[in-house]
């Protein structure tokens, strides 16, 4: 059974990805800061197919130990889904420096360091899949999300360059860029803001976490063996 490490898997999109991957026959190592009731219920319903592991991407020195422990417990990691992220809404000029640093660390620097250590084992086995969760905000921009947009744009550049670095040993690296979805991070979207987003979608609806999870599963599967270095949007067509 192939093991996929999913960060930020305790809720929202990460939880949807874990649910989809279990359904598609993977064993999921669900990483996060706390074991949520939803993830615990998923564990109880799928004994042996999902395990929780504590990971704090802000604690950069701990990431190498986490990757080593994960390899010891579960053997080679076949897939890595860098999903964990934070979005702090605020005008850049009034954001505290610590908030900017937090966004960049969790959304970009932490995932890069985690990928560094996990990909080493993948290179030894000469197989593996890495999927980074970006956002359409990386290319479209959005008022009040400058730091968030910068972090996701960094992740997309990382995706393209790493694909060139490690493709020769059989590892693919891709990104999924969801549009606005109904998650804890976007829970404050309502009224005029929500209507504006819906008007931009040809389908007249928001993409769901299940939609994005399906794309992640596809990129991890055999039909995506020749796809690497790409950024795929799942946004109801709002960026068309």
TrEMBL record:
<dbReference type="GO" id="GO:0016491">
    <property type="term" value="F:oxidoreductase activity"/>
</dbReference>
<dbReference type="InterPro" id="IPR002347">
    <property type="entry name" value="SDR_fam"/>
</dbReference>
<feature type="domain" description="Ketoreductase">
    <location>
        <begin position="2"/>
        <end position="179"/>
    </location>
</feature>
<protein>
    <submittedName>
        <fullName>3-oxoacyl-ACP reductase</fullName>
    </submittedName>
</protein>
<keyword id="KW-0560">Oxidoreductase</keyword>
<dbReference type="Pfam" id="PF13561">
    <property type="entry name" value="adh_short_C2"/>
</dbReference>
<dbReference type="InterPro" id="IPR057326">
    <property type="entry name" value="KR_dom"/>
</dbReference>
<comment type="similarity">
    <text>Belongs to the short-chain dehydrogenases/reductases (SDR) family.</text>
</comment>
<dbReference type="GO" id="GO:0032787">
    <property type="term" value="P:monocarboxylic acid metabolic process"/>
</dbReference>
<dbReference type="InterPro" id="IPR050259">
    <property type="entry name" value="SDR"/>
</dbReference>
<dbReference type="InterPro" id="IPR020904">
    <property type="entry name" value="Sc_DH/Rdtase_CS"/>
</dbReference>
<dbReference type="InterPro" id="IPR036291">
    <property type="entry name" value="NAD(P)-bd_dom_sf"/>
</dbReference>
